[in-house]
Amino acid sequence: MLLAYIDEIGEPGAFISREHERFHTSPSFGYAGFVIEAECARAFGQRFTHEKRTLFASELVDNPNPGQWEKKGASMFRPTTSVSHPQHLRVFAGLVRTLRSMRGMLFYYADEKPLGTPKQTNLDPAARETAAMQETLNRLCTYAERRERNLLVMIDQINEKTRAERLPQMYGHIFRRSADRPEMKRIVEPPMHVDSVLSANIQFADWVAAAATRAIDNQLIRDSPYSWVPGAWSHAMAGSFTFESKLHLWHRGVDDIHNAALFYKERPLHPIATGHRVGDGLPPEAFRKIHAAAVRAEEGQRRR
What we know:
Elements: E1 2-10, E2 28-37, H1 38-55, H2 57-60, H3 73-76, H4 81-84, H5 86-101, E3 105-112, H6 125-147, E4 151-156, H7 160-178, E5 192-194, H8 200-220, H9 229-237, E6 246-248, E7 257-258, H10 284-303
């Protein structure tokens, strides 16, 4: 049995730019975490807990219940972390190496968002969440099939209303796809929701999702404040991701980004150039409108 622990990359709302007053949160949405053999899951959780308590010992001194204290990945990895708290990056890299020594693998799947307001992009946040989760399950099941193992997926707990809405959709997707794709039979149940306060492994999945979120930001946004990502993690991440891990790009002229390439210095969308770039003379908003118009025109041609 394989156990997969996943958490969200970004959030499903609209995105325009980091400078936009409203739609500035994340340029992609998806899921990330890790997969580990069931017999190694407890040992890895213990190692994570030890490293977490050592790293944040000063914050736990007066905590009445240190066993249920967690440090969110969003707080772990900030724009200034490489300077202000480089130990956070070293501990995370060490945990990735520990995971690999226990035959575990990191995983991510995310969709780049089309740029624009909800109205401009016909945004349905629930549909975006569903599509990303379905593709995440597809890819995790493919990995389980290659390993010839069954699979159980766990995700951070959400509110009961949202859970009740998602569960039938996941059941339906798994059973429908199982008719043509035998790897879907590897998954034992739809994703189970676990309170991160009670699960060290869900907490580490949150750290992985936060790291992937920063790496995606660096890949998609030219002047990203997370340019430190490759220098901090490229070596630790090499060979640490499942073959099925992918960032799916939106109407780009380059290939999707796969596996550990997400953490590499090379940025296919923003290659190092000499001279003057065509887009440098345009403000970001004008460039976005031109790109959106080109996409609409292309989609119109397809419908004819």
